[in-house]
Write a structure and sequence with these properties.
about 150 residues
Length: about 150
Amino acid sequence: MQGMYFDELEVGCEFTSPRRTITEADIVFFTCLTGLLNPLFTDELFAREKGFGTRVAPGPLTVSFAIGLTDELLYRTVSAALGIDKVRFISPVIPGDTIWVKTTVTDKRESASRPDRGPATLRHEVYNQKDEIVCTFERTAMFLKRE
């Protein structure tokens, strides 16, 4: 699989990712790995008592899966991750939700110091199976140019 090169990216272009269902195991593994042990993520009864109906996925898990779902745009054509900005968690993601991502190229510019590459910014909107936005964020990466 090959990602998009800097030359191929156009501001305003949109891409849709594959889908992925979030499982209870995903939440358990992620919270154990990261130490995010908030009872909203780990305690079913606590999450129900707080009005969520079930435990919820940590926001960073949603962002991580969204990055993975959109990796095909960057695979082998990005030399550096430059930043993740403007992260917003709009609705909870719970076990059984299926997420997908709409990505829009919002900015790109030539690199003054590296003529073989340039930074581009991608806006990601993460949707659930009901086509409701659950999370948004921007990601900037250094894309290679075609040789």
